[in-house]
Amino acid sequence: MVRTETPVCEFGQKAIDFALPGVDGKTWTLEQCRGPKGLLVMFICNHCPYVKAVQDRLVRDARDLQALGIGTVAIMSNDPTDYPEDSFENMKKVAAELAYPFPYLLDETQAVAKAYGAVCTPDFFGYNADLELQYRGRLDASRKEAAPPDTRRDLYEAMKQVARTGKGPAEQFPSMGCSIKWRDA
């Protein structure tokens, strides 16, 4: 499992549309996921220790962001061939167990992850109301273990600023996690 960091935020880059199946049996699009003040697109999976360490924080922050008018969606783009924990059936189980308050979608072809330039799990893309990228950073200082409970909530604070002003913070710390497990060409 290779640790990877996200690149610097490309402010203003437009969100890319998608139509992906969710664990709830519905097909979700970008438009259905967005909130009136913006959208957080998260690339996550089930097996990655970096994601497992913050799953409860993902749920907490998604709920708190929803109250600010920011929609949230999680996309799983790994090839489950070598990582059966990331199968669609297991995605359903994890979403139910953790009561995900956001759509959890399968990017089976990996086309959406490639279009967004996602590189790891977790990888966060925070958009404003015009669906322009304003945040590409970490959730908080957690790594393979959750940071202390009083750790600054980088993603939440950034998206709160986006909801209020439409602009993300100039200083952003990259997210890090397991590399996306790409299919063999």
UniProtKB/TrEMBL annotation:
InterPro entries: AhpC/TSA, PRX-like1, Thioredoxin-like_sf, Thioredoxin_domain. GO terms for molecular function: antioxidant activity; oxidoreductase activity. Residues 9-161 form the Thioredoxin domain. It comes from the Bacteria. CDD domains: PRX_like1. This is Redoxin domain-containing protein.
